[in-house]
Amino acid sequence: MEQNAYALGAHLSFSKGFLHMGREAAAAGMRTMQFFLRNPRGAGAKPLDEADAAALRDFLCEHSFAPVVAHAPYTLNPCSPDERVRALAAEMLSDDLRRMAHLPGNLYNFHPGSRLKQPPGDAVKTIAALLNRLLTPDMRTTVLLETMAGKGSEVGGTFSELRAILERVELQDKVGVCFDTCHVWDAGYDIVRDLDGVLDAFDREVGLSRLRCIHLNDSLNPCGGRKDRHALLGEGHIGMDALCRVVTHPALCALPMVLETPTDTAGHAAELRVVLRHIQKEETA
Ligand code: FE
Ligand code: FE
Ligand code: ZN
Q1: How far is CA 273 from the centre of its chain?
Q2: Would residue 91 show up in a list of annotated catalytic residues for this protein?
Q3: What predicted TM-score, i.e. pTM, was given to this entire model?
Q4: Known active-site residue 63
Q5: Which of these is catalytic: 31, 96, 115, 146?
Q6: Fewer Cβ close by (within 10 Å): the C or N end of the chain?
Q7: 249 tagged catalytic
Q8: Active site residue: 163, 230, 268, 278, which one?
Q9: Ligand 3 center–CA 161 separation, angstroms
Q10: Could you report the per-residue pLDDT of 75-131, keeping only the tens digit for each?
Q11: How much is the CA Rg of the chain, to the nearest whole Å?
Q12: Are 258 and 214 in contact (CB under 8 A)?
């Protein structure tokens, strides 16, 4: 198999536990992975199995994994105008972070949410206030805001909106950003024709040093489509050439990169092999 010189991986199912997931990722040639800690559509989570978490910790270390990523349930709305919805989101995020304390040194990614009918500035302040309650000086998890497609009233569809949240956070070393290629493309950032320009804009608004993770997805829609429909790599409007330029870009190539394309682990492993072969071909051309 092609050597995975990059920290590539994919979203995996947590249903058989932590260690099983790590073994599955390693067997598929991955060097990172992402997972939900609970049902992504609901609230329920099994009690944490501490021995299983410790076993994964050792496994990731032995297999030189890059940081792994837990993803918050995506139905949460941390900036909802409805107080009960907000409280549920806060409760789940803090429970997830308690779980992540058993996997120190890794990442926790969440969607900023939907502002619904609020003015944009209110949602930004709500999310920052939530982060200021959740983050503690002693925590060893970095919490990431994901770049969003800007679908509906989604918060985080522009780099400046992410900055507006981040600049209100007190514990700056506990937060970062996850850059989703499908989402930024859908939000109108043209990473196909001008990746450097997009990264310059990101650097100006947010700072490249805050970038901690890439979600590597193709998009079913054209740039600016604001739809957030992921495509298999090379089968969407972004295309394999542009996605491989993301993987090999000097500012990005050391980051954990997670596929969230619509396929299973065997499919992800096949996509990763195609990416690595494509890069190798470009390098020797
Ligand atoms: Fe996401
Ligand atoms: Fe994503
Ligand atoms: Zn998405």
Answers
A1: 21
A2: no
A3: 0.97
A4: no
A5: 146
A6: C
A7: no
A8: 230
A9: 18
A10: 899 999 999 999 999 999 999 999 999 999 999 999 999 999 999 899 999 999 999
A11: 18
A12: yes
